[in-house]
């Protein structure tokens, strides 16, 4: 190495270190479908990615100020083998299931195999965040821990129609901007198998229906087996801590039947779910986009989120990628944010300083 290389190397190390400090939260968006495939999946992924990288900004009338500066980088995948690698999952501050589906009828086809389910359960137990959108509740019927994580499994919905949905709790960043009398929306109104408020770590209902509509089903506004649920009917909710804890008296309906026998409990992080988001038109509404931004932003602000231990949720421009692996050499889940953007810096250094590439690569490991 020439003497000129040394100061350059020091600068390179400093550059890598500086970028480490400003690691962005990372979000994995899973969109695999074993059954019905929503036409809105592409716009959903695009919306979440562009809200995260700041290219889609919402008027202040549509987004809560407490999360409007939160940025994240999004990785979208439909490859279930990604869940075979817990180290890969552990790089993410939150994993979102967006319009995923099992095959219909339930238990005839699903989107994660047992190895993936086990790793996903561990990820949540270790403080990972979760958000679910729309048919995320009609997914993994065979894995009871997932039913508890979402809060409830989908039961059925009446035909899609124009309905009004309104905020129940306008103090949450995902609903604070909604008009009190409701948002007119062309949507499927979901009914669930169980009441997410009966979980040991109960759901806090955020959205309910505000209009009468046609539901010829067996238990309109209710939970399984003909009983109407208590008011308000849950259409979106948040939960924090104890995400996987069981309630034996409701477990039969929260659980699917059969499937992987995965024991999982705890889960100190945050979970947010909305049943809305079926139609492309819904994703074009600023108030719905602000709902989603508020949900994801709130999950990312969890003290258990990986980036809360050294990353920064603002100050950098987000990146987006399709099914790529953000760089990480961390084998330990949910440790302080490190080694995400440095890979980009290393790549740049390799281009400009080919002679130092090996050295830089060696130095980057203990950073
Ligand atoms: C942000 O994400 C959107 C959607 O994927 C993409 O079109 C856009 O180029 C990205 N912008 C930046 C600055 O990365
Ligand atoms: C698991 O993921 C990590 C982080 O993306 C990666 O470095 C590692 O190579 C992966 N392991 C396997 C066996 O694919
Ligand atoms: C739903 O409302 C929209 C906008 O008001 C309207 O264009 C559409 O015809 C309505 N659809 C139905 C099925 O009523
Ligand atoms: C379990 O669920 C029942 C409703 O089926 C509810 O009354 C009870 O409070 C719940 N128990 C716990 C510990 O959450
Ligand atoms: C919700 O919809 C049901 C079915 O149309 C209706 O009976 C109920 O009154 C609605 N809830 C509210 C709060 O309007
Ligand atoms: C990031 O957030 C912190 C804390 O809210 C704030 O002090 C800082 O100014 C923000 N930085 C940028 C670049 O927005
Ligand atoms: C607990 C309970 O009553 N379960 C019933 C709910 O409804 C389904 C379908 O009608 C029955 O198969 C269950 O036994």
Automatic annotation (TrEMBL):
Disordered: region residues: 305-334
Domain of life: Eukaryota
Keywords, ordered alphabetically: Membrane, Signal, Transmembrane, Transmembrane helix
Signal sequence segment: 1-23
InterPro entries on file: Class_I_gatase-like, ThuA-like
Keyword tRNA processing: no
Record carries keyword Nucleotidyltransferase: no
Transmembrane segments annotated in the record for this chain: 339-361
A Pfam short name: ThuA
Boundaries of every ThuA-like domain copy: 26-299
Low complexity compositional bias, start-end: 310-325
Protein's name according to its UniProt entry: ThuA-like domain-containing protein
